[in-house]
Amino acid sequence: MKFNQAILVIGNLSHLTAYRVIQTPAMDRQETSQISHTRHQGTPKINTQMQLIKEFDYNEARQKTSDLVSDQAGNFNNASGENHNLETEMAKRGLNKIGDDIKELINTESPESWYLAFPKQTHQQLVALLPAQTQTNLKKSLPLDLIKTDKAKLLSHFE
Fold first, then answer.
1. Which of 3, 29, 126, 150 is least surrounded, with the fewest CB atoms within 10 Å of its CB?
2. pLDDT confidence tier of residue 45, bands split at 50, 70 and 90
């Protein structure tokens, strides 16, 4: 029961999802009845549940720069000023917001262990933003975008 009560944080620049992993011991009585008829105690197994704690949507990451810079809808050819690396600044602000949300979540939940998956392009930047206290119980951090991965298959990436 390696993951019992651990927090699993999966995200990218536009979405973040946090799960609590709950593992409980159980018996599979059906499997035993097929294998041995002498003992009907059952085969020990572990039931794993992924309980949703919180979801965050970051709509700013999906906005186009032209929508932010343009002062009129449909004003495509009329520049209203220079860009000045607006996209980079938006990504940086978004990453800071995600880091703050993760820090708050981990501080609120106080897990004994937690796991993180975030896309490779910004993974190291995000981990660097997290305070040392938040990183203390971070057991594994993967540079992967697992946001669309089936919930039942998420833990296999962290084993």
1. 150
2. confident
